[in-house]
Amino acid sequence: MTTSGAGKMPVPMGGLAFWESAVHRLDESLLSPLPPFSRLERTQIRTILDKASCRSFAAGTAVFQEDEKAERFFLLLDGTIRVVKITLDGEQVTSLHIPSGQLFGIAQALGRETYPATAVAASEILVLSWPASLWQTFVATYPGFASETYKTIGNRVTEMNTRIIEMSTKHVEQRIARALLRLINQSGTRTPEGIEISFPITRQDVSEMTATTLHTVSRLLSAWEKDGLVSSKRKKIVVCDPHRLAVLGET
Amino acid sequence: MTTSGAGKMPVPMGGLAFWESAVHRLDESLLSPLPPFSRLERTQIRTILDKASCRSFAAGTAVFQEDEKAERFFLLLDGTIRVVKITLDGEQVTSLHIPSGQLFGIAQALGRETYPATAVAASEILVLSWPASLWQTFVATYPGFASETYKTIGNRVTEMNTRIIEMSTKHVEQRIARALLRLINQSGTRTPEGIEISFPITRQDVSEMTATTLHTVSRLLSAWEKDGLVSSKRKKIVVCDPHRLAVLGET
DNA sequence: CGCGAACGTTGCGCAAGATCAACCTTTTCC
DNA sequence: GGAAAAGGTTGATCTTGCGCAACGTTCGCG
């Protein structure tokens, strides 16, 4: 049950700003299809973009840390975010993955002053961000922004609930199977072999999502590979037979 | 890991309305100290109360069921609510306990049309409720209502996160210890012996909160009783030495 | 190019805790 | 008041998957 020792380096904070507000380059069409902005006019989106900072983070770096003052909120333009908590004794637990197109770091929407967890770039990522002080304005001014945000939160609550239930009632094998399926649903890429998880992911990462050890994940993945269910290289997992994997994850 | 079989009867829906809107009896002072209403005037609270229905539910009955259409939202005036999810194969998992004074069944705040889980009365309870259509009005009209609601949600998210981390990193003994501590914090009653959980709770209930079996809970509780840590009768648990229990729950 | 770090694999033994089973106690309800 | 149901205890056994350990492989960097 206990995830094995330290394992991972302390998450480093992202480096200094690279592209700080080179935002005039960004087109309105980037935001317009995204739920929080879908009901807005082009001009409104322009206004929003003009207030945003844009920045990239290298894989493995943190956008913000748990308990840090929530001075900005973010939108993930590209890549995937891993939301992790770190326990007193240094173990990491991944509570959530956030695919591109979603808001994150929205402590304001939960009535918090600090971020509830650390956001780590799973791959190289591109994010927009706004100062927290604009949150109220956005909620009040832009129709659909608030409601879509709360839907996002609702979905995350649902996902957390699902994890609690899985950990309570499923065996390790089933949890891992389901975790992989969730990942390819959220951010899978079609390949000739099957559906690939579109960001680098280690056995350790998977173990942190499923409350087990990298050893167990490794064994399982090896067994599944022999069986033609998955195919995995270093930091790469391809699900070849999602259906059979889903069957494994049932009951 | 897998919680033992059926165990509990399917949660019955609460009976027919007993006190449907005998609300004129209720005093404004009931709501005024509660966070969602704390910034409101007496007259505003009166208006809110006039629109509410009041009702009691017997212990073990459901106020609403998972996936039911969310036609009302609720305030728990007295008692404790157990929020449970039921898996396909009939196992129950408790995700949360809600103490009196809090809103619940607030699917609207999560952008949902249906309730995400079942709310079961842990003891006899008293609830106010309003039609979902009033949600928007409340949020728009009453200052502090929205922000306090989102704080509540934030707290619940935090609590769920805590559970995920505990299940990922702690052993059964520690999880149970912490679960008991959380319960006495939320709804404990001082007694000469120690602090008592102020609603009836079975070993099975505890096992559903901690992802174990009632057997393991029973053994642990027996051991702790011998040790003077707790004292328990049928459906009753008193924590005699919270401090030592907290130590048990660490690391 | 070669070394070290990060990542991955695999075998073995052991312990935590689930499962099975039997039995007891208290409550409920006809 | 007595049977049945709900709740609780406790022992014996069995399985999962963790801990530890040793080793292989790939990658990145000086």
Overview of this protein structure:
The structure is a homodimer of 251-residue chains. With 251 residues, the first copy, chain A, is an alpha+beta fold. Chain A contains seven helices and twelve strands. The first copy, chain A, has helices spanning 42-50, 134-141, 145-169, 172-187, 203-210, 214-226, 242-249, and strands at residues 53-57, 62-64, 72-78, 81-86, 92-98, 103-104, 118-121, 125-131, 188-190, 195-197, 230-233, 236-239. In chain A, the strands form three sheets. A four-stranded antiparallel sheet of chain A has the order 1-8-3-6, with no helix packed on it. In chain A, β4 (81-86) and β5 form a beta hairpin. The longest helix of chain A has 25 residues, at 145-169. Chain A is globular, with a radius of gyration of 19 Å. Chain A starts with 41 loop residues before the first helix and ends with a helix. Mean pLDDT of chain A is 90; it is low at 1-9 and 15-19. Chain B binds a DNA duplex (30 and 30 nucleotides) through α6.
Q: Strand tally of chain A, please?
A: 12
Strands across the major sheet of chain A, in which order?
A: 1-8-3-6
Show unreliable segments of chain A.
1-9, 15-19
The rounded Rg of chain A comes to: 19 Å
Arithmetic mean of pLDDT of chain A: 90
Helical content band of chain A = 25-40%
Q: Helix-strand pattern of chain A, N to C? A: HEEEEEEEEHHHEEHHEEH
Largest interface: A-B, 40 and 40 residues
Oligomer: homodimer
Principal-axes geometry of chain A comes out as globular
